[in-house]
């Protein structure tokens, strides 16, 4: 790629507004295609799979020589349909990585981090659930992940979402009921509040806008958190997967959905992914492993590395970092099963983390709870009043729509409208997207800078006499993480040791000892030890030895008459976790050592 004028930003004309708006699939696709067309040498645009409705699940690969495997960081978003901000953040990260490759500065990314990012591969998957996101953007209908409905046993009554009055929005219906769980606010007409014992009524029930399939004319079924379909993509990954009667949203088997299967198929052959960020909404929190056990059962060296993330998260976003098991279970001692972050950590050996974007609770003055997940539940009528006031003052009053009378074909008189939670609840207002993107970029690129970096440093070629030469080859890991990644990942079968291979060029160079053609180096430690590891206390400010490097001395013979630079060889270091690093050497002419 040609040199770039540092006073110009070649990315600016290509941007399609993702820092100030939520993009539909067509625009998101054009954004990725535009970047790939502008930077063909350092990008690849891959469709990992297609959805039920025929949309591509895109992955943009960014890096020098993007076809060559080497330590990589993965970022994805929008696995849950309404959580659109994840797509914007992923696109912002892609844009900033391209900006670094163009030689431009990125706010809050110092040169050392920028150098590490340019040395890495970055996989960007901005939208795992394109069908679901398209449905949410177009209609406002709530969809947990994907709108496909393919179950065969639906004989019981269930709610099917429909735009009953043709206004282009699928919201809620409210129905007066003497035993309703909600009341209308006396301060803000139309605002529904949780019913308390002191309330005198009238009382209401609120249902999805739509109709009841298999309705018997009497009993009204409970609405499902999954809307009118069965899947939660984040319950369909292999780690601790359990069927639907145990885990809601799990589907028939791990990877049953094309979106999940696309991620699994793509990542199972890429053992070089060491960092994995999964963006969700909302809450304002980072959720790290373990998801199924307390911290006392976690690899403590892993935990120390996660403390780096904790410090960056607090510094740039103000979000806390919490344990999935200790702080983010919806039911005590009942882990969420089939979670992608658990798959990435346990099965792919990645430093995986979930970020719940958009700190709405903080904006409303609602303090965090312990465990954190309880903040979603412990909401009072006052908190709902605060949300309505904030919506009116800072969000254009978009959340709370007026109730409109409607004659329902099954229930009779109802009112339609109620809540549009797309912007303000699930996602931040568009004018706050850019700040959100900048903060998340600062955190993620630091995570990407943790990757191992294999460096081959050949020494001088020394003549041993005649046509026999020796060369010292030093192999070192210049990265934070060890070449196996997290300490817990060392036990995984694909965490194979590094192997150094000497490949003579043609017949002009041979190894004196053919057994040295492939040498096992083992793994190389990184320089990082995690925060608060105890290595650098006041009484023991000492370091490890040189466990991050190895030196080998292959002995080579140049064929008689091999002159003019023909006596070449390649030294390569390979491992599934680090890909391939290589250098080429040329033996000197006779008498030139």
How would you describe the overall organization of this protein?
The structure is a single chain. It contains 11 helices and 25 strands. The strands form 5 sheets. The protein has an 8-stranded mixed sheet with strand order 1-2-4-3-11-14-12-13, with helices on both faces. The chain has a 6-stranded antiparallel sheet with strand order 8-7-9-6-16-15. Strands 17, 18, 20, 22 and 23 form a 5-stranded antiparallel sheet that branches. Among the domains are: 12-135 and 231-358, Aminopeptidase (3-Layer(aba) Sandwich); 454-586, Immunoglobulin-like, CATH 2.60.40. α2 (85-101) packs across α11 (433-448) and α6 runs antiparallel to α11 (433-448). The model is unreliable at 1-6 (pLDDT under 50). The protein starts with 24 loop residues before the first helix and ends in a 7-residue tail after the last strand. The protein is of the alpha+beta class. The chain has helices spanning 25-38, 85-101, 111-119, 130-139, 258-268, 300-316, 324-327, 340-347, 360-363, 381-394, 433-448, and strands spanning 43-50, 56-62, 72-77, 121-125, 158-161, 172-176, 182-184, 192-194, 203-208, 210-213, 273-281, 285-288, 321-323, 351-357, 400-408, 412-419, 454-465, 468-477, 498-504, 509-511, 518-522, 549-552, 555-558, 568-575, 579-586.
